[in-house]
Specification:
single chain; alpha/beta; five-stranded mixed β-sheet
């Protein structure tokens, strides 16, 4: 194992709350151990798979559209939990994280360790501002993601 840790913020900052993943990744710069790969993706399946290729740990940060939703509510999911989310609730994108995980597994591209941090969101319309609930919860999300990254590095260095 390489000990490579990749954080992928999935979303589009031009679509209001959908920008929560990229915002979290931007805030992590300088706050995570050296060697951590910080990346942003629009959620296109092939790009996400390429970003985590060769990683021992992938941490994905994503917006979650739930019905009924509780904007700002945070969830940390395992790969299995993320894969089991019903279509249309697991992502704000055409293909959700569940589909991405299924494809990664079929292609043997699933990283050995995957942590998914999601925040329930409200408004993902093009041009919408980030909602107050999401802005308020963003620091806690950033803290959770940073803690996942630190644990991954500690686990890799303990071997």
């Amino acid at each position: 194992m390489s000990g490579r840790v990749v954080v992928i913020g999935v979303g589009n900052p031009l679509r209001g709350d959908d920008g929560v993943g990229p915002a979290a990744v931007d805030a992590l710069r300088g706050r995570v151990p050296d060697g951590t790969v910080l990346a942003v993706s629009d959620g296109e399946l092939a790009r996400v798979l390429e970003l985590w290729r060769g990683a021992d740990t992938a941490v994905v940060v994503e917006a979650l559209r739930a019905r009924p939703g509780r904007p700002g509510e945070l969830h940390t999911l395992t790969a299995a939990e993320a894969a089991s989310r019903p279509a249309g609730t697991a992502s704000t994108h055409a293909f959700g994280l569940g589909e991405c995980l299924a494809l990664a597994e079929a292609l043997d591209l699933l990283p050995p360790r995957l942590v998914v941090h999601v925040m329930e969101v409200a408004d993902t319309r093009l041009g919408a501002p980030m909602s107050e609930a999401v802005r308020t919860a963003l620091p806690e999300l950033i803290g959770r993601v940073a803690a996942s990254v630190r644990r991954a590095h500690e686990r890799d260095h303990a071997r």
